[in-house]
Amino acid sequence: MKQILLVVTLLALFATGIQAADLENRVVEHTMKNGMKLLMVERHTSPTVSAWIRFRVGSVDERSDERGVAHLLEHMLFKGTTTLGTTDYAAEKPVLDRIEEVAQALTAEKTRGKRADTEKISRLEKQLAALEADAAKYVIKDEFFELYSKNGGTGYNAFTSRDGTTYLISLPSNKLELWAAIESDRLQNAVLREFYTERSVVMEERRRSYDAAPESKLWETFVASSFLAHPYGQPTIGWMSDIENLTRSKAEKFFHSYYAPNNAIVAIVGDIDTKKTIAMVERYFGAIKPGKELPPVTAVEPPQAGQRRIELIADAEPTLIMGFHKPAIDTPDDYVFDVISMILGSGRTSRFYKKLVIEKQLTSDIGAFDAPGNRYPNLFVVSANPRAPHTVKEVEDGIHAELDLLKTTPVTERDLQRILNNIEYDEARRMGTNGGLAHNLTEYEATTGSWRYMTEHRRKIASVTPADIMRVARAYFTRENCTVGFITKKGSGK
After folding, report:
1. pLDDT tens readout for residues 209-229
2. Rounded Cα gap, residues 97 and 333, in angstroms
3. How far is residue 278 from each of residues 52, 262, 285, measured CA to CA in Å?
4. CA 209 to chain centre
5. How many Cα atoms sit within 13 Å of 178 on the Cβ side?
6. How far is 387 from 381, CA to CA, in rounded Å?
7. Predicted TM-score of the model (pTM)
8. Which of 1, 137, 156, 185 minimizes the C-alpha distance to 74?
């Protein structure tokens, strides 16, 4: 996935006359006293700007009793603050407090399982519903969105991953101060109103997008089976029982601990004056106190001692996923894996596509990518959908044959040069966006410790040799390091 992000970024740079080599001179960095990191690039091609805030906290940072909280907070932080999203916060707050009291009691009773008092549960559920209806009288729906929209904002969104949480917007450059006012208010005064209503929305999202979707269910089970110790194995959305037991108090504690300037990276790209932008950001964000430092994830995934196989029987077409444990981003072998990924799975000229899709017609599509995160050791993943009448086993054997070829036959210098040429071609052929650059500045600053990963990537890729590829293939593409997940169509008997 990171190769795609790099290409998007580099396309943006070339489209605006910014070469990767001189990006070093174009990015202005500023670190505030409270720890917030600000990255800026002036691009005066249009009177617009993209602003991204990346928090270093993702689902990998959750404890076992918090799983799903980062994703749920992503939803909740659109609900407003003490001044936005409410008609009267002074009147609303006592109702919210009472909602939390009842919800805590309801959650505690439900966790008693078979010993729970069903009459008490029913009574508390009715109380909670009545209180939520009362609180709804004060809610102004989507006020953040309306403010941005009325002022020309587009692409207002957020996303959560294992590695972090990001909030983004693009807007006219003369409205950047509006962004600063809104986002600093949200960071200091967020109100998690409609929490239990939104929790139900997330539970439905989980049912619809994961539990009832065979390919998503296979992916989730595959990742969980690949990581027995490391929290990369837990789904970002959380398991259903995790979501059911999240409370507003727990979410507020997580938010106030980690969604703070010292855990935030801000990228502002577009029609800006960097000196004026620094002054403005300092004015709105400078007085916000730092939060807690994120504790490191100390769990280390032990080496696999044998192949793991996961079968999902479902009323769906056959699907195959194969994963091999590999190092984290910005490590020497990770750059070799970037080259391997491009050789095997990047486009119609890749080995997988030419051999398994075109020549043997074993599969209708095939891809290779890193997952489920980048901050910590992860997986090199190959996914494919067998083409009838071919089976999962035939596709699996075909993939292994190509992986084995890397172990024994040196990749030609011509193939390596083709990869570099393709990167350069892709860099120059498309138009990029402010948002694409802001995305990658925040992404690589958060996952590698420096946005300069972008400028160093091509040089390190160019240093990869055929011997490096053979060594890495032999070391990692082994049976004992492999996890295989596949869907068997219900009633197929195979």
Report:
1. 999 999 999 999 999 999 999
2. 52
3. 15, 16, 10
4. 16
5. 19
6. 19
7. 0.92
8. 156
